[in-house]
Amino acid sequence: MAQELAATSRCLGCGYRAPSGVEEWDHVDSPPLGELTRCPECGSTNVTTGR
User: Fold this and answer.
1) CA of 50: how far to CAs of 1, 24, 31, 32, in Å?
2) Sign of torsion, CA 20 41 15 13?
């Protein structure tokens, strides 16, 4: 059986990486957009998710 790879999120501001959905990532509410993922290192919300 093939092992499924977990998605990883990366901050485009400082390069911080951690698995997506873990408690390491901060979140901020933005009324027009909803909940945004925020980097715990630099505070940027410019975060991308990939495998």
Assistant:
1) 22, 17, 25, 24
2) positive
% helix, strand, coil for the chain, step of 5 = 0, 40, 60
Give the angle 50-15-41 at the CA atoms, nearest 5°: 115
In this structure, the chain runs to a length of 51
Structure tokens at 9: 């999120």
pLDDT in tens, 9-49: 999 999 999 999 888 999 999 999 999 999 999 999 999 99
